[in-house]
Amino acid sequence: MQKIPMTAEGHKALDEELRHLKSVERPAVIAAISEAREHGDLSENAEYHAAKERQGWIEGRVQELEDKIARAQVIDISKMSGSQVKFGATVTVVDEDTDQESTYKIVGDDEADVKSGKISLSSPIARSMINKEEGDVVEVNAPGGVKSYEILKVEWK
């Protein structure tokens, strides 16, 4: 069983989603199915079929979340330090072609959100930065070709 690295914040978000699905969404869809059954012929009842489809999605997501939570390896970033890029590091880089600076926090797959500066540990840019230090240059195979980034700063926050 392969462990899934995540921050405490990411683990909490999965827990909250699971709790919401079990305590709010699941009872709501059961009520919708019950109500749709009361309308008669189920073979031509669009409400019933939509509710059953939603129920299937909810149950699938509950199973997926329970699996991820069971395999979670929660990493406490507050206890990490060092100059090398690792999981949980906040890394400031500069694009060597455009001189544009970007800051990324390396997080688990389920926590990734590029708009808020969080990139997945399995993303090409994060994989290229792992074990590198300030001043190192990394090359990333991007859709538009190879891009070079210089690591300006590695922080733990």
Walk me through what this model shows:
The chain has helices at 8-37, 46-70, 124-129; strands at residues 4-7, 72-75, 90-95, 101-107, 118-120, 137-142, 145-155. By secondary structure, the protein is α/β, with parallel strands linked by helices. It has 2 domains: 4-75, Orthogonal Bundle (Helix Hairpins); 80-155, Chitinase A, domain 3 (Roll). The strands form 2 sheets. Strands 5-4-3-7-6 form a 5-stranded mixed β-sheet. Strands 1-2 form a two-stranded parallel ribbon. A hairpin with a 2-residue loop joins strand 6 (137-142) and strand 7. Helix 1 (8-37) packs antiparallel against helix 2. The radius of gyration is 22 Å and the shape is elongated.
Structural class: alpha/beta
Kindly state the number of beta strands: 7
**Element-by-element helix/strand order:** EHHEEEEHEE
Please tell me what the overall shape is. Answer: elongated
The CATH class of the largest domain is: Alpha Beta
At CATH level 3, the topology of the largest domain is Chitinase A, domain 3
Estimate nothing, just give the exact number of structural domains. 2
Strand order of the largest sheet: 5-4-3-7-6
Outline the biggest β-sheet: 5 strands, mixed
Distance between the termini: 30 Å
CATH architecture of the largest domain: Roll
Radius of gyration: 22 Å
Number of helices: 3
